[in-house]
Known about the structure:
The structure is a single chain. By secondary structure, this protein is mainly α. The chain is 59% helix and 2% strand. α1 crosses α7 and α4 packs parallel to α5. The longest helix has 23 residues, at 147-169.
Amino acid sequence: MLFRTFISTVAAAPSSPTPRSSAERHTVDKPTLTHLFMQHYQANRLLWEAVMTLDDAQFMQPLMEGRPSIYTQIVEMVANENLWVNYLWHGQVEFLQPCQLPTRACICCEWDALEEELLDFLDELTPADLEERIAPGFLNHVVRLSVGESLLQVVQQAAESRRRLWDDLRYFGFTVAPASSSIS
């Protein structure tokens, strides 16, 4: 579900058949993007600390009003980011499935590896790389985003996923998400 939301968000992003001028593009520099991802990962760790306090039944059970389980939402969140890191850095499309992340330990290991991989990827990017236009075929739309815009979308989608997860965690007695669990 989150992947479909992410795809519709990206597909709705403005695109142009002809390259836009640099003044019209949404540009971001590498230090700002790195800082944003560091905040993103800190927010993920705060969320994970809360998730780890749930018992297995709470973690796995579907929620009220047809909402997917916390487990399912976390797996989709990791899978979305993994998809984009693999596509942008390696040119491969890989969408992780729940069977690949059957336990919290597996999820935690994948999330840690993903953080390390993304920060390594950011470290290797040049300003020209950030401006490179891409048209991911898996979007089923002709959308041309820069690598930098794509990475900003990853952070935005993850922030929205975290917000929904914190809302769902209220069901288990969590009253408020820590202020630093979202990125402004």
